[in-house]
Amino acid sequence: MENIALIESFSEFKDDKLIDRVTLMAILEDVFRNALKKKYGSDDNFDIIINPDKGDMEIWRNRVVVADDEVEDENQEIALSEARKIEPDFEVGEDVSEEVKLIDLGRRSILALRQNLISKIHEHDNTNLYKQFKDLVGEIYSAEVHHVRPKVVILVDDEGNEIVLPKEKQIPSDFFRKGDNVKGIIEHVELKGNKPQIVMSRTSEKFLEKLFEQEIPEVFDGLITIKKVVRIPGEKAKVAVDSYDDRIDPVGACVGMKGSRIHGIVRELQNENIDVINYTNNPQLLITRALSPAKVSSVKIDEDKKTAEVYLKLEEVSKAIGRGGQNIKLAGFLTGYDLDVIREGATAEEDDVELTEFSDEIDGWVIDEFAKIGLDTARSVLKHSVEDLVRRTDLEEETVREVVKILKEEFED
């Protein structure tokens, strides 16, 4: 009964760790064999018999009987006189099996056994956790906010597993409180020492793709294929979809009546503006669709350089470029081409001047701000009021007024 009592003492935390008794017994055997090696130098001549149903185990040491004055290895050999204390009819050369009680290992050894057992079970627990979440990489997962820190949000799932959501994996407008339920994608799992670190992301393109699978039955069933997803988290995204069934309108199915199907996805992504377009193998047509809502007049592609000149009417340029240059940037990511906007209808007599010509008077970053909203010539800037330019760019009113003054002086001269 000594062994049973000690094993139950060692395994009192078994239920908390959700480890089955058979696994626990296997770990116990490994732990006890290490203890036997430390005490006796070897465990080769020990038999450990485990009964997982009863939670019992026995340890037997096997030795060979030798004459009293011929004992060279006390672990492997036993003196005849000692053997006959166990059984009076033992003879030299016979094998003796003697049970070792755990208590015989000594108090310190038992304490060390317990610590080693706890360590082994944690190691087993972490290995299983690593494997479990490794299989979930790329899948949507939900967990509750446990702690909010400046650079990371700590989440805990229903089983008590800790998941981290780093600041850079959060949508910029995300705001979390303790107890909030957070949805994201398991982006990767890595071992930090012996402990697995599970990292969630809400900014991954894969997260948006999986949300489509979750919310749109045709995508889940494979009737609609998502060909590519690009996004600026929390701001704008473009999703190219296709269907091999001509009876299905992939864009209509994804968006739904009055946006009913995509509304939940937009809300989950903090009102991220999502453009869904029909995929095509025709690069000119794909570029045209990717620049929606702008109406493209024509596209000229250079396959060697992977660039494309996109010709647009003047009134369509700002739509193609989008706020902060987001639309044209995402269109480039989606199509795989560097896109250059060419304005139609700009005549020579307008005597326009590229903004880059003013780089000695206007800082480059200021010129870039105007380019982001499709204004890269002097006259294109002067067509707008100062108030409009301030509203559409990230520039201060004083900076805009100074730029306008410089440009006006150019044409006055």
Please characterize this protein's 3D structure.
The chain starts with a helix and ends with a helix. The chain folds into 4 domains: about 1-130, N Utilization Substance Protein A, Chain:P, domain 4; about 140-200, Nucleic acid-binding proteins (OB fold (Dihydrolipoamide Acetyltransferase, E2P), Beta Barrel), CATH 2.40.50.140; about 205-280, K homology (KH) domain (GMP Synthetase, Chain A, domain 3, 2-Layer Sandwich); about 350-410, Orthogonal Bundle (DNA polymerase, domain 1). The radius of gyration is 36 Å and the shape is elongated. The model has no long low-confidence stretch (mean pLDDT about 85). It is built from 16 helices and 15 strands. The chain has helices spanning about 1-10, 15, 20-40, 80-85, 105-135, 205-215, 215-220, 250-255, 260-270, 285-290, 315-320, 325-335, 365-370, 380, 385-390, 395-410; strands spanning about 45-50, 55-65, 75-80, 95-100, 140-150, 150-155, 160-165, 180-190, 195-200, 225-230, 235-245, 275-280, 300, 305-315, 340-345. It is α/β, with parallel strands linked by helices. Strand 5 (about 140-150) and strand 6 form a beta hairpin.
